[in-house]
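request received
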Amino acid sequence: MFDAYGTLYDIQSVAAVTEEAFPGYGEIITQIWRIKQLEYTWLRSLMRRYEDFSVITRESMAYTLKVLGLKNDADVFERIMEKYLHLDLYPDAAATLAAMQGRKLAISFQRLARHAGRAGAPQRARARRHHQRRCEKNLQAQPGRLRADRIHAWRGARDVLFVSSNPWDACGAKAFGLKVAWIERVKPEAMALACVKNDVIPPLTMFKALRTQMDELGLEPDYRIRALAELPGLVAT
Amino acid sequence: MFDAYGTLYDIQSVAAVTEEAFPGYGEIITQIWRIKQLEYTWLRSLMRRYEDFSVITRESMAYTLKVLGLKNDADVFERIMEKYLHLDLYPDAAATLAAMQGRKLAISFQRLARHAGRAGAPQRARARRHHQRRCEKNLQAQPGRLRADRIHAWRGARDVLFVSSNPWDACGAKAFGLKVAWIERVKPEAMALACVKNDVIPPLTMFKALRTQMDELGLEPDYRIRALAELPGLVAT
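response:
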């Protein structure tokens, strides 16, 4: 079972669109947006005020533009949101899934349906099917889509391997009782080097410092790999 | 009811100690530490793996030093943790509470007991009483300490005013049904100005962009004030 955002899809690939929309702000928009997007999923869960992931994505973008004092123009806003449906795949994603077609594969992606906040249930279902088809086409594979309401059937399943590059996600899946392979994309040595005694750092470095290194939550993934490409070899052993 | 950390106590006041311990890293340690500390409270609640706030404070500091490639020396570590029990008050905190002594005041602070992770229950209770006394002495006031297990009695209470400068906290209290005064310490204009088309920014600016502006969670505080000093005037009306 694969996590989607940050694992198969490169969330940093929105930066070109945000830079085009707001020259000089592309990187900081991308980082604040992603950090707040995740925070909002956690906070809304804790407050039991659940919202579709697309609503949270929109609200975290609204927050980001507000903080930066940028004009929230409807057309520009929609163009940026659109990119979130067309994130670039990591270079090794399609080949990795293709190499594992003999196994039962699933993607655990949060529901990102276009305009879901405003649309009715049929529109949302259509948008999700659209997203699913695009996802399969991109991946050149047909992994099943994991429905959130079915995930509880997986609790503690020992024959499931959850794959994520997101540390909190890897920890969450461990707490849930799954076997976990964590993709450590940013090497600790490179991370430390990027932060050496700098008064100022790029927002991307701050993002990496906050969200790419294994968390200290008393949980450890079963496997650490450096790239998706290592996965077929790992599960073959 | 006052939030403590970030509202009465200035969490940025650990920066001098972290800078002394790790020259050139004081500010980035302080920001990553605080951001992760809060994340860990949210993630542990979601995973239902609760820990004392002092354990979370230690784990988020361990994460921070690891990310920055800094040596986790036991003595240095304890010296930094100690500062968390002696945070500076905001300049207007004591006078504000003194001006409101006619009212029933409470502080909602998470339990930060020294060495609580290693100590037994009696030691922890003693450390908490110690912290409480120090807190009262600092504030020159005797606000009641709000026990987490009693907070549910406050749900929806219309005669309670929750005061916090933390946006997620203000939203959480609103979702909980309380009246809320939010202290907007960082003005939106100053925030936007600090981020103008900079490739690199100080970690403190990134912290402010993430954690001082009102969140987009579909909730609004009842009152917005700019400083604690405005509070006696607000409740008198």
